[in-house]
Amino acid sequence: MQGRAAERDRIDRMLADARDGASSVLLIHGDAGIGKTALLDYAAARASGTRVLRIDGLESETELAFAGLHQLFLPSMDLVDQLPGPQARALRAVFGLTDDTVRDRFVIGLAVLSMLSEAAGEGTLLCLVDDVQWLDRASVDALAFAARRLQVEGVVLIFAARDAAGVAGLGGLPALRLAGLDPEAAAALVADLSPYVRQRIMDEAQGNPLALRELSAALTATQRAGQLSPLTLSAPSNRVQDAFLDQIRRLPEATRTLLLTAAADDTGTLDVILRAAEATVGDLAPAERAGLIVLTGDALRFRHPLIRYAAYQGSPFADRIAAHRALAAVLVAPEHAHRRAWQLAAAATGPDERVADELERVAIWAGGRQALASASAAYERAAQLTAEPEGRARRFIAAAQAAADAGQDERGGRLAAMVEVAPQDAGLAADLARVRAVVELGYGSPDVAGRMLLDCADQIAARRPDKLPALLVDALHAAFSSGNAELIEAVADRAPTEPVLAVPARLLTGDVPGALRALRPLVTARGRTDTGFMGRLMTGIYCHLSADDEAAYEIAAEAVEHCRDNGMGGWLPTALHLLARVELTLGRLDAASGHAAEGLRLAEGYDLSHRAAHLRAVLAILAAVRGEEEQTGRLARDAMAYAQPRGVGRATADALWALGLLDLGLGRADVALQRFEAARAASGHRLFGVFLLPDLVEAAVRAGRPERAVEPARLLGDWAEATGRPALAALAHRCRALTRPDAEAEQHFAAAVRLHRDGSAIDRARTGLLHGEWLRRARRKLEARSHLRDALDTFAALGAEPWARRAGAELRASGEVAEPSLGGPLSRLSPQEREVVRLAAAGATNREIATQLFLSPRTVGHHLYRAFPKLGVTSRTDLASVLSS
Question: Which of 209, 338, 587, 807 would be 762's cystine partner, CB 3.0–4.6 Å?
Fold first, then answer.
């Protein structure tokens, strides 16, 4: 471990922190041979009294779903019985112990988190994952999910990879890049060489420890003494690989065949390798003496991945094909069906329907266990081995769909492009259009995605009318995201009798009574139509737009539960976004924050960038209400960075709304007015901008530009009258009070206060603040105080600090001096502590909370332990009363 003092110290600190209960994660990355494995060995050696789990990624197992997890947890399978039922069933399914399917891949990630926590027990656990770049994607995703949620389990999780950027799923984890050794440390490794040769080897190795050792070991005695001819400069890994290849070529033929078979194998089982190579254990002795392999019990492993690579790539192509065929011939047991399929695929040199069928079965199995990246790879290889055009197209479409579902949008787009001719089957054409649209929506333009779906609907309408409603509702969802009213109307025109499509057409043309009539049966059915889950979400959106937020809340909450109960993890962020938006409108700010934060975590986990932008914008609005200037700016900027270039109008509008709301709360009315007007323009159709009209009107009046408030106030009034909703009517009266002469203002304030009685607390408080300000300016200070005091108490309870400060200043100006502390007990909690407390108060157990928030039970207990003294309680039974107060 020459020259690695700082790295060793970091590992020592991680292990020490684990003994105090803290968990930590580290991704070590650098070139082949740079010393990553040596650092993992160091960590294992220093982990005295600590349980150690360790795996090595194998290039030959990259496409085998959950091979890495199976290897990692094989010594600890007894712990599976201690997991919550759904998690235990998921792990047994992905390990092939049952035929169950897994509907939500996050259950697998949560099971891994629980397994790590259980493995640590009351002590500590060191988990080492080497060569992550070759681990199967399903295992990487599950381990990354757990890594991001480790907190106080006493777990140290260290990954090692060649290239951090090349390991999908590990982005954002604490990382340590290993550089080459400094000259002093490098010289110490080859101190026995003559000065000239030592310098030549150091120049060639560029500080790579493995290169220093192997190039030095490959020298003859004469060369070590100084007689060294000029070397061809190349990358250290290439030079080391060449040195390994020279060693392999000097071995007997039977040993070389064994090494090639072992390199092509993905089991690491000595019996399988020997039978496939038709060899004996004695044939391995020369390779073992040369230090190329390590034999442990019935397992064979290469001392370094570069040795495996040299053994495989250094062999003739025909020999590699023969090795794969030989391995397939011995992997006949049912538990090896997937390995056999991939060995046959590696041996195939042209179309082979029999092998393609076997791979498709592998893909179906992997997809049923949410190993979507592995399923996509199997479908793709099956397509490549399929000669018949329609079957080839079907398999490429399935590969693209699995990739898109896995969050690999770019790969999904590439696979969809592999469909060379338009499928003749209309259903297949519809599936292809939906995949391409999903990919486009994932990282491109919702407007383009909607038009793609619309075009496909036109093409298949006559041949597959059964596919039409779902296509059109997907197109409608994309159009709503962009805010493109023209596209919405075009979609609705395609099926005017379809209930889910009839509502927006009427809403956007101003036929609100007709829209409400069309919406009524959808609300009664809670959005359950033949347009599937998207139809349910759209019904909730319609209710929200028409200000029927109680119905919208019930539909959104049911949609969230439906996703949880049915393992629809990919849809859950969308449902949580709708629920958070509705809760925001209803003034349920803590609940909205919790649901939006959960949705964002899930969206990031699924790489759903489009949905993440919407959720960041909602969180920005909530942060603006609380006056968190830095947080609001960061969330809004991140949302707009994605949304603006892609025409995601609704997310852009919400982000601008958040910035304007922050400015308004902090007294920057002129800037706020500009933000609100920009948000209104970005939202597309005027209907989508209705939520920010009250803020726009207030900003215009406070900025001394009342003429810019007239049209928004009128539009809000018309919309309130058309819908007949009290909440909208209250806001419309507030706006009239601000824009009408003083002689009329009071009656509008009074009407607003009356209509607010059962509505949003924060809207009621903001109306009270404005009314109190108006009364104080009219020198009616005593009347003003009651409105201002109520507003201050509400703002303080909600943690709306800018508004509370303004209410407090107005109250002092009226002669009142008493001010409550801001936020109450809940304001002392971190966001995650608030979420945990909210669920605990509702009666959820630690395990139930852990499952819902994707934490370990130990972390939940830690948050409650920290929250109790902050809230002044000593037991869970006291939490409900604290929250209700």
Answer: 587
Compute the distance between CA of residue 359 and CA of residue 863 in angstroms, rounded to an integer: 46
Together in a domain, 162 and 188: no
Amino acid found at 826: L
Using CB atoms within 10 A of its CB, is residue 418 exposed (0-12), middle (13-18) or buried (19+)?
middle
> Which letter, b or e, does each residue of 605-623 get, where b requires 16 or more Cβ atoms within 10 Å of its Cβ?
bbbbbbbbbbbbbbbbbbb
Give every CB contact of residue 407 below 8 A, 6+ residues apart in sequence: 442, 606, 607, 608
Q: Which of 533, 551, 569 marks a domain boundary? A: 551
Supply the CATH number for residue 870's domain. Answer: 1.10.10.10
pLDDT in tens, 106-119: 889 899 999 999 99
- Tokens at 48, concatenated: 């005295």
Domain count, the chain: 5
3-state secondary structure 509-529: CCCHHHHHHHHHHHHHCCCCC
HSE (side-chain half, CA atoms, 13 Å) at 875: 2
Q: Say yes or no: 193 and 167 in one domain.
A: no
Among 233, 267, 298, residue at a domain's last position: 233
Residue 533's pLDDT is 80
Q: Given pLDDT bands bounded at 50, 70 and 90, which one contains residue 236?
A: low
Question: Does the predicted model carry a pTM greater than 0.70?
Answer: yes
Co-location of 146 and 295 in the same domain: no
Q: Could you tell me if residue 644 is inside a domain? A: no
The pLDDT confidence band at residue 228, using thresholds 50, 70 and 90, is low
Residues 319 and 413 both lie in one domain: yes
Residues 6+ positions from 186 with CB-CB distance below 8 Å? 2, 3, 180, 202, 205, 207, 209, 212
Supply the CATH number for residue 146's domain.
Answer: 3.40.50
- The pair of three-digit structure tokens given for residue 684, joined into one six-digit string: 């597309």
Task: For residues 19 and 29, give the distance between their C-alpha atoms in angstroms, rounded to a whole number.
Answer: 25
How many Å apart are CA 208 and CA 833, to the nearest integer? 46
Closest residue by Cα to residue 374 from 736, 96, 664 = 96
Residues 43 and 135 in one domain: yes
Inter-residue long-range contacts of 843-852, CB under 8 Å, 24+ positions, other chains counted: 847/84, 850/110, 850/114, 851/84, 851/86, 851/87, 851/110, 852/564
| End-to-end Cα, the chain, rounded Å | 59
Q: Which amino acid is at 61?
A: E
Cα 212 from Cα 233, distance rounded (Å): 14
Give the structural domain span for 21.
5-177
Residue 231 has pLDDT above 50, yes or no: no
Say how far apart CA 231 and CA 87 lie, in whole Å: 56
Is 160 contained in some domain? yes
